[in-house]
């Protein structure tokens, strides 16, 4: 009998942004092209690596791709999501957008979802915690994914 083993989580790759933790009031981001952006600094290095691991705790809604981190996305709830906010994600040209709506799954206006699909981009709406997990899996697969994550 042939057994196939598939690794879910490969070795750490500091050159892409990954999500290390999703808490109700923050998201912990690891890695990235420069290790930190948008004014966030590295946390103290608690492991024995050199140089320190680039880790950021973000307490605002954000947009994350494997190589871009926008840590000040102004959307707080699905009700405040607008076409302009969707365009901020679409311009990044991902193949799929993961929309994390916070602690509860909430569906945005269908007009906003059609804005995404009209640009040939897939979109999946889920809780922010589920979007964080899905983002990591797709990133590890090398997919061109963008996650727009609401923290509320």
Describe the structure in your own words:
It is built from three helices and eight strands; from the N terminus they run βββββαβαβαβ. With about 150 residues, the chain is of the alpha/beta class. The protein has a single domain, classed as Hypothetical Protein Mth938, Chain: A, CATH 3.40.1230. The strands form two sheets. Strands 5-4-8-6-7 form a five-stranded mixed beta sheet, with helices on both faces. The protein has a three-stranded antiparallel beta sheet with strand order 1-2-3. A hairpin with a 2-residue loop joins strand 1 and strand 2 (about 25-30). About 30% of the residues are buried. Mean pLDDT is about 85; it is low at about 5-10 and about 35-50.
Task: Briefly say what this structure is.
The chain has 152 residues and is an alpha/beta fold. The protein is 19% helix and 24% strand.
What general outline do the C-alpha atoms trace?
A: globular
Find the CATH superfamily. MTH938-like
Mean pLDDT: 84
Sketch the major β-sheet: 5 strands, mixed
Residue windows where pLDDT falls under 50 for at least 5 positions:
3-10, 35-50
Question: How would you describe this structure in keywords?
Answer:
Hypothetical Protein Mth938, Chain: A; five-stranded mixed beta sheet; three-stranded antiparallel beta sheet; disordered N terminus; globular; alpha/beta; 152 residues
């Amino acid at each position: 009998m042939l057994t196939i083993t598939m690794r879910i989580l490969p070795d750490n790759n500091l050159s892409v942004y990954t999500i290390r933790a999703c808490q109700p009031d923050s998201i912990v981001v690891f890695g990235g092209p420069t290790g930190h952006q948008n004014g966030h600094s590295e946390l103290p290095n608690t492991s024995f690596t050199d140089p320190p691991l680039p880790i950021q705790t973000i307490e605002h809604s954000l947009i994350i791709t494997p190589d871009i981190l926008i840590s000040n996305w102004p959307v707080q709830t699905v009700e405040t999501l607008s076409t302009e906010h969707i365009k901020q994600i679409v311009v990044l040209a991902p193949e799929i957008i993961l929309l994390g709506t916070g602690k509860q799954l909430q569906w945005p206006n269908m007009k906003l979802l059609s804005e995404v699909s009209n640009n040939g981009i897939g979109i999946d709406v889920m809780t922010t915690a589920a979007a964080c997990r899905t983002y990591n899996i797709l990133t590890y697969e090398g997919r061109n994914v963008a996650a727009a994550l609401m923290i509320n």
